[in-house]
Design goal:
Blueprint: E1 3-7, E2 12-17, H1 22-28, E3 39-42, H2 48-60, E4 63-67, E5 72-76, E6 84-85, H3 87-90, H4 100-107, E7 109-113, H5 126-134, E8 138-142, E9 145-149, E10 158-160, H6 166-177, E11 182-186, H7 192-203, E12 207-209, E13 215-219, E14 227-230, H8 235-248, E15 250-255, H9 263-271, E16 274-278, E17 282-287, E18 297-298, H10 310-317, E19 323-327, H11 337-343, E20 347-351, E21 354-358, E22 368-369, H12 373-385, E23 389-393, H13 396-401, H14 405-410, E24 415-419
Bound molecules: uridine-diphosphate-N-acetylglucosamine.
């Protein structure tokens, strides 16, 4: 298993290009199942999660062609050859559940294993299932699989999500594009990835209104056509790397980045003393003062502070002047990075969904272990600021969500290398 060796404590300066969004790409890819014509995605990130989704779609009959080193993905699902998404692939990634809605909408039936994914909480899929049931799906849970049928096709209906779910909104939205009549989804997620999906579906001929607000109205159509769509830039990758100059000092230009993607997060970074400016190529982030100051952070659905940047923000606050309180409201088990950061000298007190972080002058190196995708990159950030050499092990989590992490950071002067093993 690979590890990453980081020799910390030097300022970072340079340019980091922002990749296409992993989460957006993972929801755009299953949209191929809605159409007989090819869907071409450009600006795709080169990540193991994307390859896993490609393998899942191939197992269902999609022809997947990866061009330009994976930056362009052509998906062609002339026919769905099998309607079963097998446990062996689905267990690797929770987003696999997103094939359920499209498969059901196009073919009238689907069997999908219940998913696995990061160990950051129970993460059920009940809202996905309830939304599809409201559209007329008959569901049966047997042997770890969801068996779904829509005899006579799905029918438009009104559904209000009891709380915001990104994945459930995506699944039900895709299914509703081919349902008969009008679907209204209330309390829908508003994340940029949902907007990106809706824009792609509209290019494919879907009739959708209200994306980017909490109410989506979808007028079902008989069929969807092919389209070409660029994947939106990855706001989580951007936010993660924005923390690199914040924690180490220095100045980095993030090409392709823009403030609108990281609004609430950027506001917090400015509050702790980081300068953020839009340039004509992207977003320039600089730490001018010596030490950042503490700030309280509560994770919320978009447009609030993203849960996917909480672990990385905690790494920064471990070095801030004063005490910060981080409240995690989306996932119940998302402080697994805290004990690892404490091995590096951080002072963190976790109680339920709240972590109290008292900043220290200097983090120190220690062997640490990645526990999930965002936790792993928070350890890399901490290691970049720490004194000495830190080895972060179990970095396969990292490869699921960050392309060429060593390359992007070392281009800015970070001393970081992968140790194969
Ligand atoms: C997506 C993102 C993930 C991000 C999360 C929240 C992808 C591939 N992943 O995950 O990176 O952290 O949004 O921004 O896009 N829930 C239920 N029942 C359901 C669905 C969700 O109880 O049927 C709960 C979850 O356990 C969680 C909360 O709702 O506590 C929000 O989850 P959700 O927004 O659905 O996250 P994902 O779509 O899985």
């Amino acid at each position: 298993m690979d590890s990453i060796l980081v020799t910390g404590n030097s300022a970072l300066n340079g340019v980091i290009p922002v990749a296409g969004s992993k989460n957006a790409c993972l929801t755009l890819m299953p949209a191929t199942l809605l159409s007989e014509e090819p869907l071409t995605l450009t600006n795709a990130p080169q990540l193991s999660d994307i390859r896993t989704m490609g393998a899942l779609l191939e197992s269902l009959g999609t022809e997947v062609n990866s061009l330009q080193g994976g930056k362009v993905i052509v998906l062609d699902t002339r026919a769905i050859s099998t309607h079963t998404a097998d446990y062996d692939i689905v267990r690797k990634m929770r987003a696999s559940i997103l094939v359920l809605g499209p498969m059901l909408a196009r073919g009238g039936h689907a069997v999908v294993s219940l998913p696995g994914g990061c160990a950051i909480g129970a993460r059920p899929v009940d809202l996905h299932l309830r939304g599809l049931e409201v559209l007329g799906a008959e569901l049966d849970l047997r042997d770890g699989y969801v068996h779904a049928k829509a005899s006579g096709g799905l029918k438009g209906a009104t559904f209000e999500f009891p709380f915001v779910s990104v994945g459930a909104t995506e699944n039900v939205l895709m299914a509703a594009t081919l349902a008969k009549g009008t679907t209204v989804l209330k309390n829908a997620a508003r994340e940029p990835e949902i907007v990106d999906l809706a824009e792609c579906l509209i290019k494919m001929g879907a009739q959708i209104e209200g994306h980017g607000t909490s109410m989506l109205t979808i007028q079902g159509v008989d069929s969807l056509q092919g389209a070409t769509h660029p994947v939106v830039p990855d706001r989580i990758e951007l936010g993660t790397y924005m923390l690199a100059p914040a924690i180490c000092g220095g100045k980095i230009n993030f090409t392709g980045g823009c403030r609108a993607l990281v609004g609430a997060f950027a506001d917090k970074l400015e509050e702790v003393g980081i300068s953020i400016e839009e340039s004509n190529t992207g977003l320039v982030v600089e730490r001018k003062d010596n030490r950042v100051t503490a700030v309280d952070v509560t994770t919320e659905p978009y447009p609030g502070f993203p849960t996917d940047l909480q672990a990385q923000m905690m790494a920064l606050l471990c070095t801030a002047e004063g005490t910060s309180v981080l409240e995690e409201t989306i996932f119940e088990n998302r402080f697994m990075h805290a004990p690892e950061l404490m091995r590096m000298g951080a002072q963190i007190d976790v109680s339920g969904g709240t972590a109290k972080v008292t900043g220290v002058d200097q983090l120190k190196s220690a062997p640490v272990m990645a526990t999930d995708l965002r936790a792993s990159v928070s350890l890399i950030l901490a290691a970049l600021a720490a004194e000495g050499e830190t080895v972060v092990s179990r970095v396969y989590h990292l490869d699921r969500g960050y392309e060429r992490v060593e390359e992007k950071l070392s281009a800015c002067g970070a001393r970081i290398e992968r140790i194969s093993g």
